[in-house]
Amino acid sequence: MKALLLEGAPDALRRACEAGRLEVVEVRSIPDGRARLAREAFALVDGRITRPCALDEELRQRVDAFFDRLEGQPASGLYDAVMREVERPLISGALARARGVRSAAAEALGIDRGTLARRMRALGLDEP
């Protein structure tokens, strides 16, 4: 049985896990913890890993984790990569909530209907 903890978890929590004969698995960030949690079963999970957080905080954590993984190597194309990852579910979600009505989805997103159509084509979301 294993426990999933963030780096810097309180020593008392770590000792309690060890006293309960749980193997402590430590991760550097919340996104890393969530990725590990998706792949493995844990008897105990640090609450900070499972607690929902605001979108801006989630993005900041993921960008920080991305830069940490680069280990000093130069990054390029990060802006476009993030925008692609965010824009697709954003547009898909707005369309789903608007029940496929593009004008309603565009209004919810605060963009012109033509802009929505253009972005949908660029992302391969336009259906014939």
UniProtKB/TrEMBL annotation:
GO MF annotations, alphabetized: sequence-specific DNA binding
List residues of the DNA binding HTH domain.
Answer: 83-122
* Top-level lineage group: Bacteria
Q: Which InterPro entries match?
A: Homeodomain-like_sf, HTH_Fis, Trans_regulatory_Fis
Gene3D superfamilies linked: Homeodomain-like
PANTHER family listed in its UniProt record? DNA-BINDING PROTEIN FIS (PTHR47918:SF1)
Protein name, as recorded? Transcriptional regulator, Fis family
Species, as recorded: Anaeromyxobacter dehalogenans (strain ATCC BAA-258 / DSM 21875 / 2CP-1)
